[in-house]
Write a structure and sequence with these properties.
Blueprint lengths: L6 E11 L4 E12 L2 E6 L8 E4 L3 E5 L1 E6 L5 H5 L14 H4 L15 H14 L2 E6 L9 H10 L2 E4 L2 E2 L2 E5 L5 E5 L1 H18 L2 H4 L1 E7 L7 H14 L2 E6 L3 H11 L3 H7 L7 E5 L16 H8 L2 E4 L1 H5 L8 H6 L3 E4 L8 H16 L7 H15 L16 E5 L11 H8 L5 E6 L2 E5 L2 E2 L4 H17 L1 H4 L6 H4 L10
Parallel strand pairs: 1-4, 1-5, 6-7, 7-8, 8-12, 9-12, 12-13, 13-14, 14-15, 15-16
Antiparallel strand pairs: 1-2, 2-3, 5-17, 10-11, 17-18, 18-19, 19-20
The structure holds zinc ion.
Length: 488
């Protein structure tokens, strides 16, 4: 058998996988041919097609982002430390209202194509090579997701989202959920058609999942059909769950059990399920529900948690805690949620917030955070060829510049990565052997165009806010700017 000569990345500090755990090879190499790693080690013997000098770089497996929203999220950018107190600090509920079939939505003026390209490029150039994307094409053409993922070269898990109910505001601002099972049935059937058509597209970089948008908007009957459709196809399921205090108490009021207990009783949980957020579980200090059972149920089922602390921390909320979930035996991966779509920054916050919530500096160790963003993500996706640099794994490789004043000097490269890095230190990204980011920029598109298009889309959304607001107020009236304008 003749094999093409490999591409060789040499001279860097390589985080290699020995079959059980990551190990550090100082001045090591990674060699790949086609979309696969062929060898990893200290000294390469053989001929290489191309040699990439990684001196001064950390060579890590492509990071896995288990929960991302690629669309330009103008809504959440507006309401970080503002919004309605009666919604218990939940961010999205502030702009999720009026989404019914006959109502005006917050983001209806958004250019979904501009948002998607901007988001996918951000995800990629911050060091993620594999992402689960939830609802980024909302309002746009779902096939854009396949097309744009293919253009920029990201490995993506996606499925059109659907739900069996709408959030609504009434004329006095009252907030409630209006069921609509027929809408969910249609959305579910359309999602399955998309999944059956596009699973394995883009040379198998595009894979699908079943994504009922949120637990609270999915009926028991629909969950049963989702579970069996995922089983028939061998694909995963992901959704938002236990993400707001409002949701937690709504479920306790209606069913007498917690959100996690309810989906456990309904038979949803299992190794193919990625639970988005899962912050409000029994024992969380903000919800007055001291009873145990939620973390045990998740751990026993083999489901994974997609932990995205930044969006929650901005509103004074935190999962309690990374270490506690790990100690219960729960597999945790890391997501970036809405913005910034920077997995390295998210990893830093996983560690810092994980220590703060436990009041223990030994919690959320840098090693465990790195494992979560690599091996944890791979386990959640049931892939043993991702999240590691080892022969036979996919050539998803990230080079991080370590020889700069943000990163150096250091004694341990993983601690330096977790406590100092953000996406700006990412220099090159390979997905399936293709160079998709160089000098920190996504190669497929012009950064200037992405930014100009995103600005235009955001300005259109913000300017149309009075038509969305029930009282016709401007966005500045509802979410006041930090400082008044000079002219006022
Ligand atoms: Zn989300």
């Amino acid at each position: 058998m003749t094999r093409e000569k490999p591409v060789l990345i040499e001279g860097g500090t390589v985080v290699a996988f020995d079959g059980k755990q990551h190990r550090i090879i100082d001045k090591g190499y990674v060699a790949f041919a086609g979309d696969e790693i062929v060898s990893v080690g200290r000294t390469f013997s053989g001929e290489a097609e191309t040699v990439i000098d990684a001196t001064g770089k950390l060579v890590i497996p492509g990071l896995i982002n288990l929960h991302s929203h690629a669309g330009v999220d103008v809504g959440s950018r507006a309401i970080v430390d503002a919004g309605r107190r009666d919604l218990w600090r939940s961010g999205f509920l502030n702009f999720e209202g009026r989404m019914g079939p006959d109502a005006v939505s917050f983001g209806r003026k958004a250019n979904s194509r501009a948002g998607l390209r901007y988001g996918l490029a951000s995800i990629l150039q911050n060091g993620t090579t594999t992402a689960i994307e939830l609802g980024g094409a909302d309002g746009g053409d779902e096939r854009d997701m396949v097309r744009f993922a293919g253009e920029c070269g990201i490995r993506l898990y996606y499925g059109p989202t659907f739900y069996s109910g709408y959030y609504h505001y009434d004329e006095r601002g009252g907030f409630y959920l209006k069921p609509d099972d027929a809408h969910a049935d249609r959305g579910f059937e359309e999602a399955l058609r998309f999944i059956d058509e596009f699973h394995g597209a883009n040379d198998d970089l595009f894979r699908t999942m079943i994504i009922p948008s949120s637990f609270l908007r999915t009926s028991r009957n629909l969950f049963e059909r989702i579970k069996s459709a995922a089983g028939d196809r061998g694909i995963g399921i992901t959704l938002h769950i236990a993400e707001s205090i409002w949701e937690f108490h709504n479920v306790v009021n209606r069913f007498g059990v917690t959100p996690i207990q309810l989906v456990h009783d309904w038979g949803l949980l299992g190794p193919e399920v990625v639970l988005g957020h899962t912050v409000y579980v029994g024992g969380h200090s903000q919800i007055s529900w001291p009873y145990k059972g939620d973390l045990e149920a998740i751990a026993e089922s083999g489901a994974s948690v997609a932990h995205a602390p930044v969006t929650f921390a901005r509103r004074g909320m935190a999962l309690e805690s990374f270490q506690r979930y790990r100690d219960y035996g729960i597999n945790i991966g890391i997501g970036t949620d809405t913005y910034p779509l920077d997995i390295l920054e998210e990893m830093r916050m996983v560690s810092i917030i994980g220590k703060t919530t436990d009041k223990n500096f030994e919690s959320a160790h840098a090693r465990e955070v790195f494992d979560a963003a690599t091996l944890g993500g791979a386990k959640a996706l049931r892939r043993d060829d991702l999240g590691r640099l080892a022969p036979g794994a996919k050539a998803d490789i990230v080079l991080v510049d370590m020889n700069n004043m943000r990163m150096a000097p250091y004694s341990d490269p993983i601690r330096a990565l977790i406590y100092c890095a953000n996406g700006e230190q990412v220099e090159k990204v390979f997905v399936a052997g293709r160079l998709v980011v160089d000098e920190g920029r996504t190669l497929a598109w012009s950064a200037e165009e992405l930014l100009a298009d995103a600005w235009k889309s955001a300005r259109d959304v913000l300017a149309s806010f009075p038509e969305y607001d029930r009282d016709g107020r401007t966005i500045d009236e509802v979410y006041p700017p930090c400082y008044a304008s000079w002219e006022d």
